[in-house]
Specification:
single chain; 422 residues; alpha+beta; Nuclear Transport Factor 2, Chain: A; six-stranded mixed β-sheet; 13 strands
Length: 422
């Protein structure tokens, strides 16, 4: 009897173990973790991106160790090789085991490559050059962590357009750590727009489940990043551009020189000169491009009605008398466009598909403008309907709007300018 009872207990415990194993496999996504571990083992062996895109990278700025430079270089090579082929590469292999930053990086990368693959124009590329400007390297002796801040510049020669895509000084921060004698990425953050919207998408998914990130550990994260990716790609696929809706434009004595403004945005500025930088430097940059086209600064009225950098003399001290908020602040610029009459810029908000080259495009999230660009190219179908824009600002030139990851935009159409109060 005792033997039978023992056998029954063994059977019950075995059943519980098997059921528990399957639950762990499903809920905690152990299969994915094992696949990641297998892929990470490849890091010590010869392994190359599964992409025909050639990516060359050079470093400047502060000096890194050879291992640090190789790790960061390989990370960006995989990233841009994947974008070039519009196919996600395995960047998780460069990460420390079981860090949520790895899973979020995968989400952002999968999201951006899926956007590139669904783009109406062929934005694949066979070659890409990268410049990695290291701004800061700090070794935390107590923890063994290495903090690295850098700015990434890149040029991609798209197959589907004559205009190359350019990245200018995109900010990245890494925290590196040594594990089992191999250097790994522990954390990575960037101001890349697709990261911003992937980040917001994940928070929306967690909020719907009444969770915040601190509630989750590594094993739970894949479930929610997968849900976020599905939601974001579905929203991107359903996004469309509304046709132009403006019947009457504001009065303008002089036309807007669109090509000059757009060329300034694509080329960028090699020197700020009297134009300093603000937190929202994308808006500052766009204002400079508009000014480059010949539209005069507007110093009439009080400072809330103005669009200008200086008074009678150039002012580089950022005083209220020297620069209006509308010059460097996205929402203030929108209010100026909406309210200005008479002297100065004549502009109006238009439908998402009503933009022209030289118009201003703002990325929106929850009613706020989170980034600003100038439209420097239009991708349309045979009937002339807009399917995508190429946009430029201080950090990007001729990049696809769709690949930025934003599905809500505000387009501000610039008509011209007036020199009299009419």
């Amino acid at each position: 009897m005792k033997a039978v009872l023992t056998a029954m207990i063994v059977v019950v415990l075995t059943a519980i173990y098997v059921v528990g194993l399957f639950l762990v496999w499903d809920v905690f996504n152990v299969e994915k973790s094992l696949d990641d571990l297998m892929d990470k083992d490849l890091y010590a062996a010869e392994y190359a991106p599964d992409s025909p895109t050639r990516v060359d990278a050079v470093f400047d700025g502060k000096t890194l160790t050879l291992d640090e430079e190789l790790l960061i270089k390989d990370y960006f090579v995989y990233w841009y090789a994947g974008l070039g082929a519009k196919k996600a590469e395995n960047i998780s292999r460069f990460y420390s085991l079981q860090t949520s930053f790895e899973l979020f990086d995968e989400l952002a990368f999968d999201y951006e490559t899926s956007l590139a693959a669904s783009c109406p124009a062929d934005l694949s590329f066979d070659e890409c050059t990268l410049t990695v400007n290291v701004k800061r390297r700090h070794e935390v002796t107590r923890s063994g962590k290495i903090e690295i801040d850098l700015e990434l510049s890149a040029q991609m020669n798209y197959n589907g357009t004559r205009t190359p895509g350019v990245v200018r000084g995109e900010k990245h921060s890494f925290v590196l750590i040594t594990e089992d004698k191999d250097l790994r990425i522990l954390e990575h953050t960037t101001d890349r727009p697709s990261y911003y919207f992937a980040n917001k998408g994940l928070d929306r998914v967690l909020s719907a489940s009444r969770l915040i990130r601190s509630d989750l550990n590594y094993t739970f994260f894949p479930k929610y990043t997968a849900s976020a990716l599905a939601m974001l790609t579905e929203e991107a696929a359903s996004a469309s551009f509304d046709p132009p809706s403006i019947s009457t434009y504001p009065a303008a004595e002089y036309e807007y020189d669109r090509s000059t403004a757009a060329n300034a945005a694509i080329k960028g500025f090699s020197s700020s000169g009297a134009f300093g930088e603000y937190n929202e430097n994308d808006a500052n940059f766009v204002s400079r491009c508009i000014f480059e086209s010949g539209i005069p600064m507007d110093s009439q009225g009080d400072r809330y009605d103005q669009w200008k950098w200086y008074d009678d003399e150039v002012n580089t001290e950022r005083k209220k008398t020297g620069c209006s908020k509308s010059w460097f602040d996205r929402e203030a610029f929108y209010r100026y466009v909406r309210d200005n009459e008479g002297f100065g810029m004549a502009a109006v908000q238009t439908a998402s598909g009503g933009g022209e080259i030289g118009d201003v495009l703002q990325l929106m999230y929850n009613g706020d403008a989170v980034s600003e660009f100038m439209i420097t190219g239009i991708i349309a179908d045979g009937a002339g309907a807009v399917k995508d824009y190429l946009v430029s600002n201080d950090k990007y030139a001729s990049v696809s709007l769709r690949t930025l990851g934003c599905t809500d935009i505000r387009v501000l159409h610039i008509v011209g300018y007036n020199t009299a109060n009419i």
